[in-house]
Protein backbone atom coordinates (compact mmCIF):
# COMPACT_ATOMS: atom_id res chain seq x y z
CA UNK A 1 0.00 0.00 0.00
CA UNK A 2 2.85 2.40 0.85
CA UNK A 3 4.45 1.71 -2.54
CA UNK A 4 1.25 2.59 -4.37
CA UNK A 5 0.81 5.77 -2.34
CA UNK A 6 4.44 6.74 -2.88
CA UNK A 7 4.16 6.01 -6.61
CA UNK A 8 1.04 8.12 -6.94
CA UNK A 9 2.65 10.97 -5.01
CA UNK A 10 5.79 10.81 -7.15
CA UNK A 11 3.71 10.71 -10.33
CA UNK A 12 1.75 13.74 -9.16
CA UNK A 13 4.87 15.71 -8.25
CA UNK A 14 6.64 15.00 -11.52
CA UNK A 15 3.62 15.63 -13.73
CA UNK A 16 2.62 18.93 -12.24
CA UNK A 17 3.72 21.67 -14.60
CA UNK A 18 2.22 24.90 -13.45
CA UNK A 19 2.07 27.49 -16.18
CA UNK A 20 2.01 31.18 -15.50
CA UNK A 21 -1.30 32.32 -14.01
CA UNK A 22 -2.77 28.82 -13.74
CA UNK A 23 -4.13 29.46 -10.27
CA UNK A 24 -5.48 32.89 -11.21
CA UNK A 25 -7.09 31.54 -14.37
CA UNK A 26 -8.58 28.49 -12.64
CA UNK A 27 -10.15 30.55 -9.85
CA UNK A 28 -11.43 33.20 -12.28
CA UNK A 29 -12.88 30.63 -14.69
CA UNK A 30 -14.67 28.73 -11.95
CA UNK A 31 -16.02 31.94 -10.40
CA UNK A 32 -17.17 33.28 -13.77
CA UNK A 33 -18.92 30.02 -14.57
CA UNK A 34 -20.73 30.06 -11.23
CA UNK A 35 -21.59 33.77 -11.42
CA UNK A 36 -23.12 33.41 -14.87
CA UNK A 37 -25.07 30.21 -14.15
CA UNK A 38 -28.76 31.19 -14.45
CA UNK A 39 -29.85 28.26 -12.28
CA UNK A 40 -27.18 28.85 -9.63
CA UNK A 41 -27.70 29.85 -6.02
CA UNK A 42 -28.12 33.66 -5.94
CA UNK A 43 -25.92 34.03 -2.88
CA UNK A 44 -23.08 32.01 -4.40
CA UNK A 45 -23.44 33.98 -7.63
CA UNK A 46 -22.84 37.22 -5.70
CA UNK A 47 -19.74 35.81 -3.99
CA UNK A 48 -18.39 34.58 -7.30
CA UNK A 49 -19.14 37.86 -9.07
CA UNK A 50 -17.02 39.60 -6.44
CA UNK A 51 -14.21 37.13 -7.10
CA UNK A 52 -14.34 37.85 -10.83
CA UNK A 53 -14.38 41.61 -10.28
CA UNK A 54 -11.57 41.48 -7.70
CA UNK A 55 -9.41 39.28 -9.93
CA UNK A 56 -10.00 41.50 -12.98
CA UNK A 57 -9.19 44.61 -10.94
CA UNK A 58 -6.04 42.97 -9.60
CA UNK A 59 -4.80 41.95 -13.06
CA UNK A 60 -5.42 45.39 -14.53
CA UNK A 61 -3.73 47.20 -11.65
CA UNK A 62 -0.75 44.87 -11.69
CA UNK A 63 -0.20 45.59 -15.38
CA UNK A 64 -0.42 49.33 -14.68
CA UNK A 65 1.53 49.63 -11.45
CA UNK A 66 3.65 46.48 -11.27
CA UNK A 67 4.56 45.60 -14.86
CA UNK A 68 7.65 43.70 -13.72
CA UNK A 69 5.80 41.50 -11.24
CA UNK A 70 5.58 37.81 -11.93
CA UNK A 71 2.58 35.67 -12.72
CA UNK A 72 3.39 33.80 -9.52
CA UNK A 73 2.62 36.94 -7.53
CA UNK A 74 -0.78 37.18 -9.22
CA UNK A 75 -1.41 33.49 -8.55
CA UNK A 76 -0.55 33.90 -4.86
CA UNK A 77 -2.87 36.90 -4.54
CA UNK A 78 -5.68 35.03 -6.33
CA UNK A 79 -5.23 31.99 -4.11
CA UNK A 80 -5.22 34.14 -0.96
CA UNK A 81 -8.34 36.04 -2.14
CA UNK A 82 -10.14 32.76 -2.77
CA UNK A 83 -9.15 31.50 0.69
CA UNK A 84 -10.22 34.82 2.25
CA UNK A 85 -13.68 34.56 0.67
CA UNK A 86 -14.01 30.90 1.65
CA UNK A 87 -12.99 31.67 5.25
CA UNK A 88 -15.51 34.52 5.29
CA UNK A 89 -18.29 32.29 3.96
CA UNK A 90 -17.46 29.59 6.49
CA UNK A 91 -17.63 32.10 9.33
CA UNK A 92 -20.94 33.47 8.08
CA UNK A 93 -22.37 29.94 8.09
CA UNK A 94 -20.84 29.12 11.49
CA UNK A 95 -22.30 32.22 13.13
CA UNK A 96 -25.81 32.06 11.67
CA UNK A 97 -27.22 30.97 15.04
CA UNK A 98 -25.30 33.61 16.99
CA UNK A 99 -26.73 36.98 18.05
CA UNK A 100 -26.86 39.61 15.32
CA UNK A 101 -24.26 41.83 17.00
CA UNK A 102 -21.76 38.94 17.00
CA UNK A 103 -22.42 38.27 13.32
CA UNK A 104 -21.86 41.94 12.54
CA UNK A 105 -18.61 41.84 14.52
CA UNK A 106 -17.38 38.90 12.40
CA UNK A 107 -18.30 40.72 9.18
CA UNK A 108 -16.43 43.82 10.38
CA UNK A 109 -13.31 41.73 11.04
CA UNK A 110 -13.23 40.75 7.37
CA UNK A 111 -14.15 44.22 6.14
CA UNK A 112 -11.38 45.77 8.22
CA UNK A 113 -8.84 43.16 7.10
CA UNK A 114 -9.64 43.95 3.48
CA UNK A 115 -9.70 47.73 3.87
CA UNK A 116 -6.61 47.96 6.08
CA UNK A 117 -4.35 46.01 3.73
CA UNK A 118 -4.23 47.80 0.37
CA UNK A 119 -2.03 46.44 -2.38
CA UNK A 120 -1.95 49.33 -4.84
CA UNK A 121 -3.04 52.33 -2.71
CA UNK A 122 -5.42 53.23 -5.52
CA UNK A 123 -6.76 56.80 -5.19
CA UNK A 124 -9.97 55.89 -7.08
CA UNK A 125 -11.94 55.22 -3.89
CA UNK A 126 -15.28 55.10 -5.67
CA UNK A 127 -14.17 52.06 -7.65
CA UNK A 128 -12.05 50.46 -4.93
CA UNK A 129 -14.79 50.71 -2.31
CA UNK A 130 -17.76 49.94 -4.57
CA UNK A 131 -18.46 46.65 -2.77
CA UNK A 132 -17.25 47.87 0.62
CA UNK A 133 -19.66 50.82 0.63
CA UNK A 134 -22.66 48.84 -0.62
CA UNK A 135 -24.73 47.93 2.42
CA UNK A 136 -26.62 45.32 0.39
CA UNK A 137 -23.47 43.54 -0.77
CA UNK A 138 -22.56 40.18 0.76
CA UNK A 139 -18.90 40.89 0.05
CA UNK A 140 -18.21 44.26 1.61
CA UNK A 141 -14.51 44.26 0.80
CA UNK A 142 -12.14 46.63 -0.90
CA UNK A 143 -11.01 45.66 -4.38
CA UNK A 144 -7.60 47.17 -3.56
CA UNK A 145 -6.56 44.48 -1.09
CA UNK A 146 -3.35 42.62 -0.47
CA UNK A 147 -5.19 39.36 0.03
CA UNK A 148 -2.20 37.57 1.52
CA UNK A 149 -1.96 40.11 4.33
CA UNK A 150 -5.75 40.38 4.67
CA UNK A 151 -6.29 36.67 5.30
CA UNK A 152 -3.56 36.70 7.94
CA UNK A 153 -5.13 39.74 9.62
CA UNK A 154 -8.63 38.20 9.60
CA UNK A 155 -7.34 34.84 10.85
CA UNK A 156 -5.49 36.49 13.73
CA UNK A 157 -8.60 38.41 14.77
CA UNK A 158 -10.70 35.25 14.61
CA UNK A 159 -8.18 33.35 16.75
CA UNK A 160 -8.50 36.03 19.43
CA UNK A 161 -12.20 35.16 19.68
CA UNK A 162 -11.57 31.50 20.45
Number of domains: 1
Specify the helix fraction band: 55-70%
Uncertain ranges: 1-18
Structural class comes to: mainly alpha
Mean pLDDT over the residues: 90
Characterize the main sheet: none
Distance between the termini: 39 Å
Number of strands: 0
Order of helices and strands: HHHHHHH
Whole-angstrom Rg: 18 Å
Strand content bin: under 5%
Could you characterize what this model shows?
69% of the residues lie in helices and 0% in strands. The chain is mainly alpha-helical and 162 residues long. The chain has one domain (21-161). Helix 2 (22-35) packs across helix 4 (71-94), helix 3 (42-65) runs antiparallel to helix 4 and helix 5 runs antiparallel to helix 7. The model is unreliable at 1-18 (pLDDT under 50).
Task: Please describe the topology of this protein.
Elements: H1 2-15, H2 22-35, H3 42-65, H4 71-94, H5 100-115, H6 125-128, H7 147-161
Task: Give short descriptive properties of this protein.
single chain; 162 residues; mainly alpha; 69% helix; globular; disordered N terminus
What's a quick, concise take on this entry?
The chain has helices at residues 2-15, 22-35, 42-65, 71-94, 100-115, 125-128, 147-161. The chain has 162 residues and is an all-alpha fold.
Amino acid sequence: MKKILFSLLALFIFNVNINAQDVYNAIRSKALLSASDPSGNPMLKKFNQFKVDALDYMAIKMKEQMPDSTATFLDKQAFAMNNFINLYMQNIVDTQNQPANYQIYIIKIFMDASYSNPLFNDPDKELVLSYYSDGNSLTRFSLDTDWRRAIIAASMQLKKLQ
